[in-house]
Amino acid sequence: MSMCRFRSIQNVKDAVDWLGYTYLYVRCLKSPQTYSVDASDDDGYLTGHRANLIHTAAHKLDKCGLIRYDRSSGSFTPTELGRISSHYYITSDTVSVKRNFSSESCHEEFTSFIIQFLFDLDADLQPIAKTAFE
Q: For a disulfide at 90, which of 30, 44, 85, 99, Cβ 3.0-4.6 Å?
């Protein structure tokens, strides 16, 4: 997501090329069965597999509203939510959970849950959290 945020990756081709420079690509070459790479594939550079990974990730990010993915042109456009979540390392799964809490009462429950979670992470704030949420 951060690569889209900085506009260094703007489309599927850029993303497939970038993925070729990652450790995941090296691992897929060395152990294709572990990463569900089709052994009968004649593509020695795993271009098809990388394109499939990119398409799946782009579709998920688009569904969460983190990017706009135009399937016909293969272009990515980051959204404001995507930029913010990338900056603060918020995962697409977290954004997806937040989108499921769409009603006002659910929004309050979600906010309370997040605040409780943050208090639990910080040992100095735990006494405050216990009194606030009991």
A: 85
